[in-house]
Amino acid sequence: MSYLRTFLPWIVFAVFPSGDWQWGALAALLVAVAIIAKEKQSGTGFDALIIESGSAVFFAVLAAVAFADPHSGVHDYSAALSSGTLAVIAGVSLAIGRPFTLGIAKRSTPPEFWGLKPFIRTNVVITAVWTAAFVATAVALALVAHAGHAHSTAATVIQIAGFAVPMVFTVRYVAHVQAKAGQVAR
């Protein structure tokens, strides 16, 4: 559920009709701000809100562009820019040693595990896979947009795969790591 909440602004933006992209960007911004406010109110630190904070900034800029010029060329590349932005956020989180998945994982993991090398390494691997998926998705969506099919079924399938593949990997990898830890503990 944490990943769904984390990426909810992006999902909201994706489900808005293409012709209403400015409203989709505004709705995504409002969702991102609401998530941040709710999480901060419950005591969550900004280190656990890396994607959410980046989402708010991205959608604020995108909404400003979209309302200023609803026919902007940015529209056709907005899906690629979205994935590219997520790739940058995730990549920077890795580069600074704070994988964005750490904050998500800490929500469901007891604090005594947070500083352990296997926990951190698991999150580095997971964040790296998400980063690679975001990069691949951004490139694929840019190519589709360049070919004039930015708002096609192919673009939708690419966007869905860009989230589904790393999500499935995350679930399976965490299960694998936990199973392996259980074998060592015996």
Which features does this protein show?
single chain, 186 residues, mainly alpha, 7 helices, globular, membrane
Shape descriptor reads globular
Discrete helix count: 7
Q: Mean of residue pLDDT?
A: 92
- Quickly count the domains: 1
Oligomeric nature of the chains? single chain
- The proportion of residues forming helix, as a percent range, comes to over 70%
The termini sit apart by 30 Å
Helix and strand content put the structural class at: mainly alpha
Can you describe this structure?
This protein has 186 residues and is mainly alpha-helical. The protein has one domain. 76% of the residues lie in helices and 0% in strands. It is built from seven helices and no strands. The longest helix has 33 residues, at 153-185. It starts with a helix and ends with a helix. The model has no long low-confidence stretch (mean pLDDT 92). Keywords: Membrane, Transmembrane, Transmembrane helix. This is Threonine/serine exporter-like N-terminal domain-containing protein. The chain crosses the membrane at residues 20-37, 49-68, 80-101, 122-145, 157-175.
